[in-house]
């Protein structure tokens, strides 16, 4: 058994950002529990799938991003006992804490839709939600000259909810530039009643889809995949008995997602829910039943869009509130639900959707009109955001 003042579960964007901010506050007894040896900047995988970036640019050794002075525990968490302030690891060892920060991310539930796991190993399907898979997406887009291309989004919260649309638009723009778009039938399957949860951005995306001639199936979800016969079953979210069988020549799938299975079984999870998110106050990020537990990022129950921009807004809130808790002071910081989704609508265009809990636009970029498509100034997603991520966000400076 080992003890640390602050234990962080997860070495992803949320965990590393918070660890760095805590070190910047001069705390010295911090541990990060993370079994992976590689850290990925996952937003780049959309550009990898669209042929705009190499996959190798999205990764760094985990040892390079763990903040100096932070103890790295290279094992996976298996259980949490919030009464005993204990984290049990998969090897049976335990770590105790004064304060716990859960940043365990989401798991990809490939088996939630029958046939999806099999389809991603087939010749005509891929997904940008995997480092090894994203390059294949670009191979499929390049080889497509006619036929039907289907792009799917699952029901329930997922990380970067705009990603299923982004790759459809990048593919359409490439095919248009190659002069073959008119030979390709594109179908985009969305579980939501609109293109986006914020009306002004939804209206813009309606125009984008129309520009490419994309058929959009709203309030629908792919519920079964037959990769042998290259066919998907699309079901209505309002009436599951209403289905459509659609053959494809290319398929880009996104799996349903949830908190890690081990986390679902702990007392930290929201009771009686299948997703298993950590049950926190949506403003303070503090657990609603265990005051020395906080959570942020994709595994938290906050009703915001699960994006890196949300983590960037949550991290200082968690740090300030953890420090206040340790000092036995009232929690001073509050998260307003801010999230941002830079939607690539073409190889040289972007729609920067910023919003908060009110589901109204929350622009933060000066000069730029973020309510409309803009030219991708300075290769915003390819250069600016990765640079901000590696050199500022993961160092607790942004």
From TrEMBL:
InterPro entries: FAD/NAD-bd_sf, FAD/NAD-binding_dom, Sulphide_quinone_reductase. Residues 5-122, 184-305 form the FAD/NAD(P)-binding domain. SUPFAM superfamilies: FAD/NAD(P)-binding domain (SSF51905). This is FAD-dependent oxidoreductase. It comes from Micrococcoides hystricis. The lineage of its organism: Bacteria, Bacillati, Actinomycetota, Actinomycetes, Micrococcales.
């Amino acid at each position: 058994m080992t003890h640390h003042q602050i234990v962080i579960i997860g070495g992803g964007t949320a965990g590393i950002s918070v660890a760095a901010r805590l070190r910047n506050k001069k705390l010295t007894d911090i541990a990060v529990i993370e079994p992976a040896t590689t850290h990925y900047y996952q937003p780049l995988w959309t550009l990898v799938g669209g042929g705009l970036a190499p996959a190798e640019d999205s990764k760094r050794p985990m040892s390079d991003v763990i903040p100096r002075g932070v103890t790295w525990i290279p094992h996976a968490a298996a259980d949490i006992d919030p009464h005993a302030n204990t984290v049990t690891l998969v090897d049976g060892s335990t770590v105790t804490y004064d304060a716990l920060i859960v940043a365990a991310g989401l798991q990809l539930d490939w088996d939630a839709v029958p046939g999806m796991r099999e389809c991603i190993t087939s010749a005509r399907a891929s997904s940008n939600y995997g480092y090894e898979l994203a390059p294949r997406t670009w191979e499929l887009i390049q080889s497509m000259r006619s036929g039907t291309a289907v792009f799917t989004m699952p029901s329930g919260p997922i990380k970067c909810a705009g990603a299923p649309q982004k790759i459809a638009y990048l593919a359409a723009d490439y095919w248009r530039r190659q002069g073959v778009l008119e030979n390709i039938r594109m179908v985009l399957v969305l579980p939501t009643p609109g293109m986006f949860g914020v009306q002004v951005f939804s209206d813009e995306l309606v125009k984008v889809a129309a520009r490419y001639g994309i058929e959009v199936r709203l309030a629908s979800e792919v519920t079964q995949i037959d990769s042998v016969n290259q066919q998907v079953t699309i079901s209505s979210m309002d009436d599951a008995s209403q289905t459509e069988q659609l053959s494809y020549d290319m398929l880009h799938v996104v799996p349903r997602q949830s908190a890690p299975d081990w986390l679902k079984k702990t007392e930290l999870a929201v009771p009686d829910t299948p997703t298993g998110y950590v049950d926190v106050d949506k403003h303070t990020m503090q657990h609603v039943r265990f005051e020395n537990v906080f959570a942020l990022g994709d595994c938290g129950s906050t009703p915001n869009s699960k994006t890196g921009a949300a983590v960037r807004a949550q991290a200082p809130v968690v740090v300030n509130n953890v420090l206040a808790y340790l000092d036995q002071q009232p929690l001073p910081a509050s998260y307003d639900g801010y999230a941002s989704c830079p939607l690539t609508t073409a190889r040289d265009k972007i729609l920067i959707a910023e919003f908060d809990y009110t589901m109204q636009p929350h622009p933060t970029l000066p000069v730029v009109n973020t309510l409309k498509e803009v030219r991708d100034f300075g290769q915003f997603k390819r250069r600016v955001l990765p640079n901000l991520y590696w050199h500022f966000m993961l160092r607790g400076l942004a």
